[in-house]
User: Fold this.
Amino acid sequence: MAGELTSAAVAMLLESPRTFDLFSRELEQDEALLRRGLHPPLLVWWEHAERPAVVWGWQLLQRLAALDIVAVPVSLVNDDAAEALELAIRAEGRPGRFGWDELSAVAACMRELGLEDNDPKLSALLFGRPASVLREVRRYEELPPPLQRLVASGAVDLKSAERATGVPEAVLERFGAGAEQLSFSRRREMLAMLYEFCVVGRRETEAVLALLDEVFAAPDPLSALRAHRYPRLRELERQFEAFCECYASGSGVELSAPAKFEGSAFGVQFQFESAPQLARRIRCLQAIERNCDELFRLL
Amino acid sequence: MSCFDYYRERFQRFYAEQAVAEHPVVARVAERLAVEGPVIVEGREEVPAADRNEGTLVAAAARGRVVNRCPGSHGHICCNYLTIDLYAGCTLGCSYCIMQSYRNYAPMVVHVDTAPIISAVQAVAAANPGRRIRVGTGQIGDSLQLDPLFELSRELVEAFADEPAVELELKTKTDFVDHLLGIPNVGRAIIAFSLNPPQIAASEEPDTAGLEARLAAAARSIEAGYRVAFHFDPIIRVGAWREWYGAVVDRLRRVPAERVAWVSLGTVRFTSALRETIPPRAYMFDEFIVSRDGKMRYLQRERVELYRYLRARLEEALGPVPVYLCMESPAVWRRVFSDSRSAPAGSLLAPLALPAGL
Assistant:
């Protein structure tokens, strides 16, 4: 009877089909509590199988078996397969926070049970948004292994990984090892640039690996990679910095260039609190005026 | 291969919307294509999914406004061009084509009824007395790729022949001009050719006519009374760009300058959506920055360098023909045209009034 709470032998349950053995999160329950039976009941599907199938609680079951506990409370599930799967996912209690290995297992389970991929409740529970479970998992499974690992570890998102398809595995491995120190958005930008180096620019793998070694040794790897990807823009920035250093350094005048040197106007900004300070700023501005052709050549 | 053999090889299916099923152009095209049909559908959406591909032609009625402003680009100077969507879609396969990123209907659609278009352009001319009306059919398709088959440009050329303000521009990467050469009065019609060095065209414009063929077509067009225009767009910055583009400009020395209506220059640019659509190409591994309109362009300094070079070479080759920049920022215009020797007159760039209900 659905929802009925009863007891089942651990040994028997361990022999049951593993159709719903989907989740890999480590169980954190305290051993002493487990020995006292202070844990949730397992969900067991008894309807259409000769033997009962554990729908949820495989991790718990294995912990209990390891503690030599012989019987366990179970809640019976008599719903159809789709609802059993939904219950299993609900019982995990972490909507939108499943790993890709778990999502792959759910997709395999759906295929095995012949479940349709059109249940918005299921996708909301799994992804926290409407999506086709099987299609999303297929996108993940079609990635080459190093990109799968990056996605599974949460280092990059699925879409960014798909865009990086074609980047040699050696480059991805090196990137994965070095990119841990970067923020998510920086990893994403860096991966996109690696795609450009390897696939669009057709740089040799060895050259890109050497480049990665160099940029990961730099204090700011993303900026270092950008300087390689955009050398002429970097040179404009360098010339502008040199101009500022030469004519404005220490003057209290802040000179700014249009973003990416796209536009026509430079900016100056300063404050002063005494006549000598103002005189110093004005001398700086006069030096800028005398040499401003150097600036306009940057645009 | 004649262009009709090309069409028969290229297009296997011909549909017509009910609204234009009896239009004489439809029967003529079916006969020329030697296909069964046309298959009549209520609307283009009813073309079966299996036939929604580049092997299908759809004769259709125009929807909505038939004359529009060129969408231009936010924060960039627009040349005040008007567009007519006569041919929608293109199968020339240029790698940089912006239509790849926004067109979601694969068959080529041809708006066969030119009468509302002609009326609309005439209304624009009447609403803007004393102004030049530059209008073209090459915005969302090649003006002439299908024109020998449908012969719609002839109707426009003839209709505007006595409109002194209307400059109809037929813009193409083909050399399909011969069907237009026998029109006795072409008025101010212009046949325009996109130009790129053969080395770039060979890799990025696979199904277009070669440079020699386009220039030969330009010569025939001039002989038949047309003015011509040239569009260096997109200019692609390859290592030898000076030599390659310079050599193309040198070929224009043979063109009588007084028959050149204008030349436009535009460097390669793309939206982020197009960037994801374009298969990996060597030219994409250049330094692009995001401009004010969100499109990726070369660094401003490099664009200015390209434009100045080409403008100077054009002036050497053709004299002071009008040269304008397509979708460029005011800062770039100022740097390229600081002496204003060949920039179009300012009045040309003032917006035209479009009457309501076109």
User: Anything to note?
Assistant: The two ends of chain A are 78 Å apart (CA to CA). Chain A has a mean pLDDT of 91. Chain A touches chain B through 22 residues (CB under 8 Å). The first strand of chain A starts at residue 5 and ends at 9.
